[in-house]
Design a protein that fits this description.
heterodimer; A: about 1150 residues; alpha+beta; Hypothetical Protein Ta0175, Chain: A, domain 2; 5 domains; globular; B: RNA Polymerase Alpha Subunit, Chain A, domain 2; four-stranded antiparallel sheet; 12 strands; about 30% helix
Chain lengths: ~1150, ~325
């Protein structure tokens, strides 16, 4: 193998880009922007009569450095081993200004911020494979995650509402807002430049008016829309009326695309009347009204006037993505028009579950908004505390003393870093405002390296939100056509997260802040150039004095949620085509990932308009533009889910997909496999399988034991599975080599015979050839790392309490080295010492024993020398357990055909081929096929047989027949894959259909049928009996009930529950039931007093000397005279009764609440003596 | 070369005794093809099974690792060592270590075990391959088969076999080291596949092909050709002179019934009849090199004889205890 270069893994790196780019933006600009948007606080001391203004600026984040030695870089590998976090110093300038005096800047340390691997601040950024390997990383290391306490964690990609797009929604819960509210509203998630967002809802009231609602710190505020309209700009009732009603025109009544009805005039009147009823006439009156209303809710405006408060409300909560009030006014008018169209059913509601109206939450953005919130909270909290301190009698702090104030502020500043780190560590957002996010928990997940598929899928998965998991309705889980090409229809788990946890397709990307040259996009410039292009192609800009109209005459043009003008519906098609061509050629400053969402006029469809988006965190994917073919080579256009719904994209199979002449396809898919995720793409011939089987394979691929890491030697994962001798599949798809899956193979090419042999292959069991297993088929290991930190155990103590040391016990010397740690390569049996420690206080050496019931081999012992000065305190011990296949282990092919090994059959007894002498490695039952219809597996077997004879890998890319090659028109279009593979087999003297004559290994006679046999790539799944078996004869019992305990770890039994009881009862197997539930459980012989009927009153009296004659084979008989009844004061009535011990316990419990239980003893039939 | 084989028969009963014949077709060190005639499938299969699973060889069974800083873990290396075929010509005369009286099977005794040493350290910048050639045997008669083959070939014609590197055990980079002691023992393939001396043993029934010449003559040359082509293996051919269908290689027939199906499809059922001869087998034996293929067959026959002796012992003495002890020794 030659030296690997960086470009080899380009396709892989591409998959992780959304994570890294978003964090890069956070480093480049996001942090700065967040700081700029933090409002300075003002502290005024009433006693001193002084005002202190505190603001933040110039954030600075440093690459990770070693603790104590700041010049030395800290590498991710060290963090994993030492169980520390990969984080860099975070400092910023805090500016103090007294009254209007000089600004004093002080650099304050805000703790450490975790650094994403391979981001701009990571030491591994841009490293080639050689350098990565030198730093003990994978050669393919893709980054995109954080290391927190040695664990690799990544931010879960969440689906959230599309930003800056007004979405009309119908939801029953809107009615709960108050009396008069309807279930209809237009909702818009407005996003500021610093990524923080405010969701604005425009509710429709039954009386025709509307209310604007938004949340401030856990409370929803509702404003009459008329007040907001009037407060935004200086206007009069007539202007508002005209701009609202302009979209209605008698001429277009019932015509296509007419969204407004004549009711709009009345509604405008109602809106205006509402304001008049409050006797608000002018803008300043409205502002005052709002200010008064919001004063208690707004922080830091105690001394300001009502008008200032109202302006702050308008600025900070209403259409925060826009800066100018005129734009806000126009947008609100547009929202109202859309709302009324929804109410009049001239426009359909938008589906919030459709990908069309969704975008993605990226790690960088989450951290930006969380950090901003934390800094704001910190400023507020510091202010409060500072005021508290100064108000105190002792006068610890003088607000006039700058040094004291500085000290005060730097005291709690490091909480910021800790808050961010803990958010990444546990995934919980600790916030009062909720940050306008759908959930607060589960924001991060651990990047498990169980195998490469699982690892990769973590970074490609997008979650719909935890709140939907609990919902009863299944509509959110539905696979909607809008997600075509963006989310994989195959790769979703079944069970609880089904349909909520999706995976991006391999072609799907996320729009970023960076252009193709890696520069941060200048959105202002982009918008300006788009505007000039729009005006150039006939858009009428929105100017106050101009007469307006609405659909169907003209269509509104929205650019990033700002109404910029309108365009005649006659010219719109042409305009859209023009913008698309500009988008492709990249001239005129139009970005390549611009979303041109043209919603055409329709009868009651989506609200028409031209919606354009330049923002980041949109899904995008490449398709081929057919119109653009002539000029220039670049015809790959990036489209988003919003525009996709209204585009004509055809399949590349050469057909037209049933389109009519006047709706020609304008775009073409690049390859049909682009609709599949990376993992789903690796299933060979998945187009020949029944679809659920492909889903199962996607799940099982993620549970496969494979090559989890090449740098296994240097890793300290808590648990990792490793296949000893993996192979490269003979039958593979195009993606396999594209994503370098040979670096992390996950299975073995096993010779699989499909026949019913011996009966041990029934019901999805499979027979393994014992000799194949002997020769190393599917052998594996489990690596586990145990981290021991002695300093952590005694956190309160300052000095060293425990050190690693060995006692002079001779027994220990064989397993523990003189430093108290085990020898590398040593086998340790259960409950043998793993390591030993010496307690300096008690001078006592205590060995720690190995837990579990399996032998382990010490693979690696690492000592962290950075912590304490003299003694080692932190140690990683990696152990290894061999896991060779045994009966009960789980295997699966790549077609959702899983099975459990039922026998290791001797090689000589396996059927053999007379021609080649081959015996199969594995036998599966033919019944596995008819109902599951995994034809792909049969094809794989034939293809792999041909491929291995031919000495070539076979391409099994799904849907390859749907790609029409213009140059070579295949004549064999109707032929099947078998017709290509069959002749290959015949040419080597094998049967066309892959069957062979086999002979019984036991009798040497020909088997009745010809047997289908060939190599199939088999995966070993991580579910192994050794981790699961549970067996018990006798053992620990519960203290109170004396019943056997549960739990595999504790050596408990398996519960024989109610349903099992019912089954036994139904069979009438009473004796068995008695045995299971009584004799083998809490059998107890109780002494019962037949006089008082109590089980609790028996007490022992001194046993008599007289020896009881023992009968052989029976337990010694007890003399009832040994017991007397406490309440009857006599032993005469004592009888022994066999009963469950819990019954006695029940009697005791009842007695505790003053209920007496009496037994009536009799010797009649039915009772056993 | 014919060899008498066992036919188990009591004197008092009707004799079913047969005298199987063996004819050797092709013989190489690691390859043998022979015919076995005048016996039945049970005997042929028994021979196959014994060759695969019960002919003893020597293989590394116990590995004591002194130092291992290579990338592969100890078990992996031990497993790889076990799978290296060792020259096992003495295996038949060796003792199983569990039966060895001279030692308790810990490899201290020459009757049941052979000791190997391996000590390699890489001191160069190039990757060093640790191969089977690095295994130092204490018994010159037991060594990795490729090493033995190289020694033989270089001794024979002075041919420099530097290219033949041997079986790679592990690769070392600078500073890595592998030091171990390994003990090879006698064993059989039934216990572990590493002791199996045979790579492949298979037999086929000799086919008997009857072409219905009359029916065949009704076919045109084109039909004949397509019929001949229908067999994936080259069994039939067309005589260029007479244009008659002739059997070119009967043994190439794999009993796949393709030609019979083809004949039926052509509307000529009964065009051909192919039967396996019930008492005639063609064996193919490929050895791993541990013992010669010919020796493998002879050893297998010996072992089969011993096993049959055990059965006869039971027949004559009907002493169960002795039988079980005898069987246990095999």
């Amino acid at each position: 193998m030659g030296a690997t270069s960086k470009s080899d893994f380009q396709a892989l790196q591409e998959l992780f880009r959304p994570h890294i780019e978003s964090f890069d933006y956070f480093l480049d600009e996001g942090l700065e922007k967040a700081f700029l948007s933090i409002r300075p606080i003002e502290i005024s001391d009433p006693h001193a009569g002084i005002k202190l203004r505190v603001s933040l600026e110039k954030p600075q984040l440093l690459p990770p450095m070693r603790e104590g030695r700041l010049s030395e870089p800290l590498f991710p590998h060290e963090c994993r081993q030492a169980r520390i976090s990969y984080k860099g110093d975070f400092r910023a300038l805090v500016c103090f200004q007294y009254d209007e005096g000089v600004i004093v800047r002080e650099s304050i340390n805000f703790g450490h911020l975790p650094i994403m691997l391979k981001s701009k601040l990571c030491h591994l950024r841009g490293a080639d494979p050689q350098k990565l390997v030198a730093h003990k990383e994978e050669a393919t290391e893709m980054g995109g995650y954080f290391i927190c306490n040695g664990l690799e964690r990544l931010v879960r990609l969440l689906i959230i509402q599309k930003q800056n797009y007004p979405m009309s929604m119908v939801r029953k819960s809107f009615r709960n807002r108050g009396p008069g509210y309807s279930d209809k509203a237009v909702v818009m998630r407005c996003v500021r430049e610093d990524q923080s967002s405010v969701t604005l809802k425009l509710y429709y009231l039954e009386n025709g008016s509307a209310r604007l609602g938004f949340w401030i710190r856990g409370r929803e505020f509702l404003l009459p829309v008329g007040i907001v309209l009037k407060a935004l700009v200086d206007t009069n009732d007539h202007e508002i009326f005209v701009s609202l009603t302009c979209c209605y025109n008698d001429r277009y009544q019932r015509e296509k695309g007419a969204v407004a009805t004549q009711l709009i005039g009345e509604r405008a009147q109602i809106i205006l009347d509402e304001v008049r009823d409050l006797s608000l006439w002018t803008r300043s009156q409205c502002l005052k009204h709002i200010g008064e209303y919001f004063r208690p809710a707004m922080d830091g405006f105690e001394t300001e006037s009502h008008t200032t408060v109202a302006e702050a409300v308008l600025r900070d909560y209403i259409f925060v993505h826009l800066s100018s009030n005129h734009d806000k006014f126009n947008l609100l008018i547009f929202l109202l028009q859309k709302l009324y169209a929804l109410v009049d059913q001239t426009a359909a509601p938008d589906n919030p579950d459709a990908l069309q109206n969704q975008e993605i939450l990226l790690p960088g953005h989450l951290i930006t908004i969380y950090l901003k919130e934390k800094l704001q909270d910190w400023l507020k909290k510091s202010k409060r505390q500072l005021l508290d301190e100064t108000a105190k009698k002792e006068k610890n702090i003088d607000i006039k003393n700058l040094t004291q104030v500085k000290k005060f502020f730097s005291r709690s500043s490091s909480t910021i870093g800790r808050a961010i780190e803990s958010m990444l560590k546990i995934g919980r957002l600790n916030t009062a405002s909720g940050l306008d996010l759908p959930q607060r928990e589960g924001m991060t997940i651990q990047a498990e390296r169980l195998n490469f598929f699982r690892y990769l899928s973590h970074f490609r998965s997008v979650h719909r939100g935890a709140s939907f998991a609990k919902m009863r309705t299944t509509s959110v889980r539905k696979l909607l056509p809008e997600s075509w090409g963006f989310l994989c229809p195959v790769n979703t788990p079944d069970g609880e997260p089904c349909g909520l946890l999706n995976h991006m397709t391999c072609a799907c990307r996320v729009a970023s802040f960076y252009d193709s040259e890696g520069r941060v996009k200048d959105f202002l410039k982009i918008r300006m150039s788009i505007l000039s292009v729009l005006v150039g192609i006939g858009m009428t800009p929105l100017l106050p004095k101009l007469e307006r109209a609405g659909p169907p005459e003209v269509l509104h043009v929205l650019l990033d949620g700002c109404v910029v003008g309108s365009i005649s519906s006659v010219k719109i098609e042409e305009a859209v085509a023009h913008i698309r061509s500009l988008k492709l050629s990249g001239i005129c400053g139009i970005p390549e990932d611009l979303e041109v969402g043209y919603v055409p006029l329709s009868f009651g469809g989506a609200y028409p308009g031209l919606y354009m988006f330049t923002n980041s965190s949109r899904f995008i994917r490449p398709v081929r533009n057919l119109i653009q073919v002539t000029n220039g080579s670049n015809n790959i256009e990036l489209i988003g889910p919003f525009e996709q719904a209204f585009m004509e994209i055809r399949c590349p199979d050469g057909g037209n997909g049933g389109r009519r002449e006047f709706f020609p396809a304008t775009h073409e898919e690049i390859h049909p496999t682009a609709i599949l995720s990376v993992v789903a793409n690796l299933t060979p011939w998945s187009d020949h399988n029944q679809s659920p089987r492909n889903m199962y394979q996607c799940q099982m691929a993620k549970q496969t034991m494979g090559f989890s890491a090449q740098a296994l030697q240097y890793r300290a994962d808590l648990k990792s599975y490793h296949l000893q001798t993996p192979q490269s599949p003979i039958v593979r798809t195009a993606s396999y080599s594209k994503y370098c899956m040979d670096e992390f193979p996950t299975g073995t090419n096993a010779i699989v015979a499909v026949l019913a042999y011996t009966g041990y292959d029934m019901e999805d069991a499979m027979i393994l050839n014992k000799s194949s297993v002997d020769r190393g088929l599917c052998r594996g290991h489990i690596y586990q790392t145990e981290s021991i930190d002695l300093a952590n155990k005694h956190e309160k103590e300052d000095r060293l309490l425990e050190i690693f040391a060995r006692s002079n016990d001779r027994k220990l010397k064989s397993s523990i080295d003189s430093d108290g740690l085990p020898y590398v390569g040593q086998t340790i049996h259960p409950s043998e010492p793993l390591y030993s420690t010496y307690n300096t206080l008690t001078s006592f050496t205590k060995p720690t024993l190995l837990k579990g019931s399996e032998d382990v081999i010490i693979d690696y012992v690492a000592v962290d020398g950075t912590g304490s000065k003299n003694y080692m305190q932190k140690v990683n011990i990696r152990t290894r357990r061999t896991r060779n296949p045994i009966i009960g282990d789980k295997f699966s092919s790549r077609h959702g055909q899983k099975g459990v090994c039922s026998q290791m059959w001797p090689d000589v007894d396996m059927p053999f081929s007379a021609v080649t002498g081959m015996r199969p490695d594995l036998i599966i039952n033919p019944h596995a096929f008819p109902s599951r219809m995994t034809i792909g597996m049969l094809l794989e077997s034939i293809a792999a047989k041909g491929g291995s004879l031919h000495g070539k890998f076979v391409d099994a890319t799904p849907f390859s027949r749907s790609v029409c090659n213009a140059d070579e028109d295949k004549p064999s279009k109707s032929s099947s894959v078998v017709d290509e593979l069959g002749p290959m087999l015949t040419s080597y003297g094998f049967n066309y259909h892959g069957v062979e004559v086999l002979y019984s290994g036991v009798y040497g006679t020909e088997l009745t049928c010809e047997i289908f046999i060939g190599p199939v790539y088999y995966q070993r799944l991580r579910h192994m009996v050794s981790d699961k078996f549970q067996v018990r004869s006798t053992g620990t019992v519960d203290q109170i009930t004396r019943q056997p305990i549960g739990g595999r770890k504790r050596g408990g039994g398996i519960r024989f529950g109610e349903m099992e009881r019912d089954a036994i009862l139904a069979h009438g197997a009473a004796y068995l039931l008695h045995d299971r539930l009584h004799s083998c459980s809490d059998y107890h012989i109780a002494d019962v007093c037949s006089y008082c009927g109590s089980v609790l009153t028996a007490t022992v009296i001194q046993p008599q000397k007289r020896s009881v004659r023992e009968i052989h084979g029976l337990p010694p008989a007890r003399t009832p005279k040994n017991y007397i009844c406490q309440s009857c004061k006599t032993g005469k009535g004592m009888e022994t009764v066999a009963m469950p011990y819990v019954f006695k316990y029940l009697a005791a419990e009842l007695a505790a609440m003053n209920i007496k239980m009496e037994l009536q003893l009799s010797n009649q039939a039915g009772s056993c003596t | 070369m014919t060899e008498k084989m066992m036919g188990g028969a009591g004197a008092s009963r009707t004799s079913y005794q047969r005298y199987p014949r063996v004819r050797i077709r092709e013989m190489k060190d690691d390859y043998l093809k022979f015919e076995l005639r005048d016996t039945d499938a049970s005997m042929a299969n028994a021979l196959r099974r014994v060759m695969l699973a019960e002919v003893p060889t020597i293989a590394i069974d116990l590995v004591e690792i002194e130092a291992n800083s290579s990338v592969l873990n100890d078990e992996f290396i031990a497993h790889r060592l076990g799978l290296i075929p060792l020259t096992s010509d003495d295996a038949m005369s060796m003792r199983f270590s569990r039966d060895c009286d001279a030692c308790d099977g810990d490899g201290q005794c020459e009757f049941c075990s052979v000791e190997f040493f391996l000590s390699v350290r890489c001191d160069s910048d190039q990757t060093l391959d640790v191969t089977s050639a690095d295994l130092q045997s204490t018994n010159p008669r037991v060594c990795p088969v490729d090493v033995a083959a190289n020694a033989l070939s270089s001794a024979a014609d002075g041919y420099d076999s530097a290219e033949q590197k041997g079986i790679i055990i592990v690769k070392l980079r600078r500073g890595q080291e592998l030091r171990l002691r390994a003990i090879a023992r006698k064993g059989i393939g039934k216990d572990h596949a590493k002791w199996s001396p045979a790579a492949t043993v298979t037999f086929m029934y000799e086919p008997q092909i009857h072409i219905n010449e009359d029916l065949m003559e009704t076919l045109t040359l084109e039909e004949k050709r397509s019929w001949v082509e229908s067999s994936p293996t080259k069994v039939f051919g067309i005589d260029p002179n007479t244009q008659q269908v002739v059997v070119v290689d009967a043994e190439a027939y794999t009993y796949d019934d393709e030609v019979i199906k083809k004949a039926e499809a052509m509307g000529k059922p009964g065009l051909i009849e192919i039967y396996p001869k019930e008492d005639s087998f063609i064996f193919t034996v490929e050895s791993t090199g541990a013992i010669k293929a010919s020796q493998l067959v002879i050893n297998a026959i010996d072992i089969l004889k011993q096993k049959l002796d055990a059965v006869r012992l039971q027949d004559e003495e009907s002493d169960m205890k002795e039988l079980t002890s005898h069987l246990g020794n095999l």
